[in-house]
Amino acid sequence: MTTIDDIMRTAPVIPVLVIDDLSAARPLAEALVAGGLFVLEVTLRTPAALDAIREMKRVPGAIVGAGTVVSVEQFEAVMDAGAEFIVSPGLTERLAAPIVASGVPYLPGVATAGDIMRGLDLGLTHFKFFPAETSGGLKALKALAAPFYQCRFCPTGGITEDTATTWLAFDRVLCVGGSWVAGGTPEEIEAKARAASTLRG
What we know:
The protein is of the alpha/beta class. Helix content is 40%, strand content 17%. Strand 1 (13-17), helix 2 (25-34) and strand 2 form a beta-alpha-beta unit.
């Protein structure tokens, strides 16, 4: 089975997608994949999200996961929709325990040392640092990462094309989450994805 480490190393940027119009889901996925961004996070912020996951999974090469998962009920719903990985904005044992038990790749959000320790207790070592910029930015993540040498991170929240490389230069960061790649025409999205797919620290 694919691990969360594998997923995080697939491309330097994971697009964080809010899908309002279901008809846009597949063209968006096709453009992102054509540009080299294969890992797609569909956030559960709209009524179209579950069907968007199903549509995007039809795109060859796409690895489609669910983001903003905040309850066990949502976890069950996205698994029924075929989500290949799970992202949550925070970390609670009630949500994390069944996800960990299922074996599906999981990336929970953390912002404090206590969050990370709770994740380690559950056997997790890969985390979303969220919200990245308002939680102290790269300086805060470096301070948090210091005592947790075994952990790797995907910062998300406020990261832009201009700041992504600074985050990616930190060796504990495997990828970043960003929404800047998702706007525009399919051609524009593909071009932004291609640029993002080559970002390195």
